[in-house]
Description:
This protein has 146 residues and is α/β, with parallel strands linked by helices. The protein has helices at residues 8-17, 29-34, 60-67, 82-93, 137-144, and strands at 4-6, 22-25, 36-37, 41-42, 46-50, 53-56, 74-77, 99-102, 109-110, 116-118, 128-129. The chain has one domain (4-144): Oxidized Rhodanese, domain 1. The chain is 30% helix and 24% strand. It has a 5-stranded parallel β-sheet with strand order 1-8-7-2-4. The chain has a two-stranded antiparallel sheet with strand order 3-11. Helix 3 packs across helix 5 (137-144). The chain starts with a strand and ends with a helix.
Amino acid sequence: MPINQERPPEAHETLKKNPDALYLDVRTEAEFAAGHPEGAINIPVVFIKGPGQMEVNPDFVAVAEKVLPKDKKLVVGCMAGGRSQRACEMLEAAGYANLTNVVGGFGGQRDASGTVVVKGWRDSGLPISTDVSGNTYAVQKKKAGL
Length: 146
């Protein structure tokens, strides 16, 4: 089944129409702390090891399976839409079916020249937060017992 693709304004509408839906932010903990869609929870799909070096989070699916019910609608976003697409594919393989990838993510999708071709959540004027009190990766890992 193809993974739904929505730009940030459409994803925001999806969340408003589905009060039980969750925004899953798969960016790094530092990116999440710097600002994220209001109400998002953070489970990084990769860890940054150095400039241009990313390593898949080995606990990504395990944490998700412990804290996110498989029947829940998940709107999945990252910075531009690439990591979140990969996260959606991993979640789909684990049995999640109601997935939407946010094309443009939080910071916008750019073409090869660096020009923004899809505005991100932040630049679309959608509600953002820097509150990390209960939705951080550390909290999710603890809930998952990992």
